[in-house]
Amino acid sequence: MKNNTHLEHHFTANAVVRDIIIGMSDGLTVPFALAAGLSSVVAHNSIIMAAVFAEIAAGSISMGLGGYLAAKNEFDHYYSEKQREIDEVKNMPEKEKAEVVEIFETYGLTKEEAWPIVNAFEKNPDGWVDFMMRNELNLEEPDKNRASKSSLTIALSYIIGGIIPLGPYIIISEPNRALIFSSILTLFTLLIFGYTKAKIIGLKPLKSAFRTAGIGGLAAATAYFIAHLVS
């Protein structure tokens, strides 16, 4: 017998990918810009490496903490709004019914067609609240472990991104020569990262690749020339 099961393939890891993008974007750009700036005024790679490692440590902690607080605020906001909906369903059911009818009318249903569904919600208040959260407030229930996962993902992505521009400085002793190889490696990585990011989330990959590399290159060039002028 032929199997006519319809399989749908949807990308469901938006939150994780967003965190990786946030961490990697800053991790590739900020330490690279710092190393480029120091290369114009410092004669020894050891100083550059120490400064960049310190920045990676501080940056990963800062970015991870920012991700944690953002996810925690999202979690608190959701449950604050959910409690408000629970109270309204309990204390103002007629008003909430009218709001449900309005939602169904936006999908082309008449009041007469919507009311049987609306009245059925009275037997399932939990489902009623969930319906209102999704369709009135456009809020999805967040993962209760999202805050810790987000902070760890962003911090690790920042560290990985930050180590890449530092590689040539570990191998090559002369700062300006190391900067050349670091620039090539980092810009290539930014191109790949921008392309991959766009492919995953459904944007134009080539445009994203060159835009990502361009932003990283501009940041590094700015830091280099500012440091050179100040020195």
Report on the structure:
The protein is mainly α and 231 residues long. The chain has 2 domains: 14-74 and 146-230, no CATH class; 85-135, no CATH class. It contains 8 helices and no strands. The protein is elongated and about 80 Å long. Residues 6-12 have low confidence and may be disordered.
Concise summary:
By secondary structure, the chain is mostly helical.
Assess the beta-strand content as a share of residues. under 5%
What is the alpha-carbon Rg in Å?
A: 25 Å
Secondary-structure element sequence? HHHHHHHH
Distance between the termini: 78 Å
Please summarize the sheet with the most strands.
Answer: none
Number of helices: 8
Helix content: over 70%
Shape: elongated
Number of domains: 2
Uncertain regions: pLDDT < 50 for 5+ in a row?
A: 6-12
Arithmetic mean pLDDT: 86
**Helix vs. strand class:** mainly alpha
What is the number of beta strands? Answer: 0
